[in-house]
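With this grant's support, we have settled on a layout for protein records. One resulting record is reproduced below.
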Amino acid sequence: MDVHQTIAHRIRALRDVKGWSLDALAERSSVSRSNISLIERGQSSPTAVVLDKLATALGVPLASLFECVGESASQTPSPHSSLREQAVWQDPISGYVRRNLSPPAWSPIQLVEVEFPPRKRVSYDTGPRDAEIYQQIWVMEGRMEIAVGDRRWELGTGDCLAMRLDCPISFHNPSSRRARYVVALCNLLSESRSHR
């Protein structure tokens, strides 16, 4: 399935589970109703910032918007994720590329690989969520500057940073070379996959 269709189905499914109308999600996320409608029809290429606003409103990690929903309730999600099946998405503004590494089988942990272009920045106005979501960022190549609330961290190859997703976060690659890192997320109030 195309990554934009995956995002479209996932947002609609999460909205349906909550019983929210488009207007209700628009109000909670500060994303316009028309924009959400286009995203849910797979007719828009939303930015990372817009997707984070929707994920925050829905109470899930951004990574969960890239998960494929099983086509049938009788299907058992696979505990294996092959490279060719991993959803790859590129932010249309910054050009950063994210690959969902985790398999479809439910786990409280999600892994994402990110390639971040030189001199680019992405800032999320992340706030408190219904679920407690934690993440760690392990830099495999390059340098990243990450601001979590009022604190700023400079990470080089091999460095790792842990944080809770409950305050604004900014990612910046200050160098002239790409950075590559893995994000590990843990959602302590993960929803059941039966709702996906």
Q: What stands out?
A: The two ends are 15 Å apart (CA to CA).
